[in-house]
């Protein structure tokens, strides 16, 4: 009986449990259309225990590293981006020539060889944007206005995604809109001017 109890105690002490203490996908929240983005899979698994690293978009495999396989890297197609083979390895993945359809949730999965264990990172959202390539253009229906006149103005922005949010300012003060018209008070040194549009 004493021998069996001793063996059980020794088994409990030497048994190894798999764990990955640290796993994080590091990537930007936004990327510019036509540009590149790097997704880094940072983890605490020592190289000798690392078996596999996999990157996913919305749960679908897009890039995989398996230790000991020849070649160790496998690339899968993904919409809206090209996988850059020159800058992708077991630590990072580079997506190039981004288009809007590359937007989505990305994650990485790390697997240990001995003991066998896998862990998924938290998913992170990537949004591909297209910034404006020029300043907005503001035009008026005439050059000068009298106090109390209706001011008509148009603001035209360059194409962009997401669409630009327009904030109107008159003499540096934000305009408050009320349905289809607004009233804005402008203070000068000597008198108060009221513009109604």
TrEMBL record:
Could you tell me which Pfam families the record lists for this protein?
C2-set_2, V-set
Residue limits of the Ig-like domain? 34-118, 136-197
Localization (cell)? Membrane
Give TM segment ranges. Answer: none
Membrane topology term reads: Single-pass membrane protein
Statement: the UniProt record of this protein carries the keyword Lipoprotein: no
List the PROSITE patterns hit by this protein, alphabetically: IG_LIKE
Keywords of this protein's UniProt record, alphabetized?
Answer: Disulfide bond, Membrane, Transmembrane, Transmembrane helix
**Which Gene3D superfamilies does this UniProt record tie to the protein?**
Immunoglobulins
The family database entries (SMART domains) matched by this protein are listed as: IG
Signal peptide (residue range): none
What InterPro entries is this protein classified in?
A: CD80_C2-set (IPR013162), Ig-like_dom (IPR007110), Ig-like_dom_sf (IPR036179), Ig-like_fold (IPR013783), Ig_sub (IPR003599), Ig_V-set (IPR013106)
Q: Which PANTHER family match?
A: BEAT PROTEIN, BEATEN PATH VII
Q: What is the protein name stated in its UniProt record?
A: Nectin-1-like
Organism name: Nicrophorus vespilloides
